[in-house]
Amino acid sequence: MADVAMTFSVLPEDPSMDLEEMKRNLKDGLEKKCKIAEMSIQEIAFGLKKIKLVVIVKDEDGQQDMIEEVASGVKGVGQVDFEDSSLV
Q1: How far from the centroid of its chain's Cα atoms is residue 64's Cα?
Q2: Which domains does the chain have, with CATH numbers?
Q3: I need a labelling partner for 19 at 20 to 30 A (CA). Which of 1, 38, 48, 58 fits?
Protein backbone atom coordinates (compact mmCIF):
# COMPACT_ATOMS: atom_id res chain seq x y z
CA MET A 1 0.00 0.00 0.00
CA ALA A 2 1.29 3.43 -0.95
CA ASP A 3 1.74 6.52 1.19
CA VAL A 4 -0.02 9.80 0.54
CA ALA A 5 1.16 13.34 1.25
CA MET A 6 -1.74 15.53 2.36
CA THR A 7 -1.55 19.30 2.63
CA PHE A 8 -3.72 21.30 5.02
CA SER A 9 -4.09 24.95 5.97
CA VAL A 10 -4.47 25.44 9.71
CA LEU A 11 -5.85 28.81 10.80
CA PRO A 12 -5.80 30.11 14.38
CA GLU A 13 -9.02 31.00 16.15
CA ASP A 14 -7.46 34.36 17.07
CA PRO A 15 -5.12 36.23 14.68
CA SER A 16 -2.95 37.40 17.58
CA MET A 17 -2.21 33.83 18.67
CA ASP A 18 1.33 32.52 18.99
CA LEU A 19 1.65 30.25 15.94
CA GLU A 20 4.91 28.73 17.18
CA GLU A 21 3.06 27.40 20.22
CA MET A 22 0.25 26.17 17.97
CA LYS A 23 2.84 24.34 15.82
CA ARG A 24 4.19 22.59 18.92
CA ASN A 25 0.67 21.61 19.98
CA LEU A 26 -0.11 20.29 16.48
CA LYS A 27 3.09 18.26 16.47
CA ASP A 28 2.26 16.75 19.86
CA GLY A 29 -1.24 15.81 18.70
CA LEU A 30 -0.33 14.46 15.27
CA GLU A 31 3.02 12.72 15.66
CA LYS A 32 1.41 9.51 16.95
CA LYS A 33 -1.03 9.39 14.02
CA CYS A 34 1.12 10.29 11.02
CA LYS A 35 4.50 11.53 9.84
CA ILE A 36 4.80 15.31 9.63
CA ALA A 37 6.67 16.22 6.45
CA GLU A 38 6.37 20.01 6.73
CA MET A 39 4.92 22.57 9.10
CA SER A 40 5.55 26.20 8.27
CA ILE A 41 4.00 29.57 9.03
CA GLN A 42 2.86 31.47 5.96
CA GLU A 43 1.47 34.97 5.43
CA ILE A 44 -2.06 35.09 4.06
CA ALA A 45 -2.74 38.84 3.84
CA PHE A 46 -2.86 41.97 5.98
CA GLY A 47 -0.83 40.39 8.78
CA LEU A 48 -2.92 37.23 8.93
CA LYS A 49 -0.95 33.99 9.04
CA LYS A 50 -1.65 30.28 8.73
CA ILE A 51 0.23 27.06 9.29
CA LYS A 52 0.87 24.99 6.19
CA LEU A 53 0.82 21.36 7.30
CA VAL A 54 1.97 18.46 5.13
CA VAL A 55 1.59 14.96 6.56
CA ILE A 56 2.38 11.50 5.23
CA VAL A 57 -0.27 8.81 5.84
CA LYS A 58 -1.15 5.40 4.44
CA ASP A 59 -3.43 5.42 1.40
CA GLU A 60 -6.51 4.30 3.33
CA ASP A 61 -10.05 5.60 3.68
CA GLY A 62 -10.63 8.05 6.52
CA GLN A 63 -7.11 9.43 6.80
CA GLN A 64 -8.09 12.97 5.79
CA ASP A 65 -10.96 13.04 8.29
CA MET A 66 -8.70 11.69 11.04
CA ILE A 67 -6.07 14.39 10.46
CA GLU A 68 -8.71 17.14 10.34
CA GLU A 69 -10.32 15.85 13.55
CA VAL A 70 -7.04 15.64 15.47
CA ALA A 71 -5.83 19.05 14.22
CA SER A 72 -9.18 20.70 14.97
CA GLY A 73 -8.98 19.46 18.55
CA VAL A 74 -5.67 21.22 19.18
CA LYS A 75 -5.87 24.27 21.45
CA GLY A 76 -5.99 27.49 19.44
CA VAL A 77 -6.92 25.94 16.09
CA GLY A 78 -9.89 27.71 14.54
CA GLN A 79 -10.12 26.04 11.15
CA VAL A 80 -8.47 23.18 9.25
CA ASP A 81 -8.80 23.14 5.45
CA PHE A 82 -7.70 20.30 3.19
CA GLU A 83 -5.75 21.62 0.19
CA ASP A 84 -4.15 18.76 -1.75
CA SER A 85 -2.98 15.16 -1.77
CA SER A 86 -0.52 13.18 -3.84
CA LEU A 87 1.00 9.75 -3.81
CA VAL A 88 4.48 9.55 -2.37
Answers
A1: 10
A2: 3-87 (3.30.70.60)
A3: 58
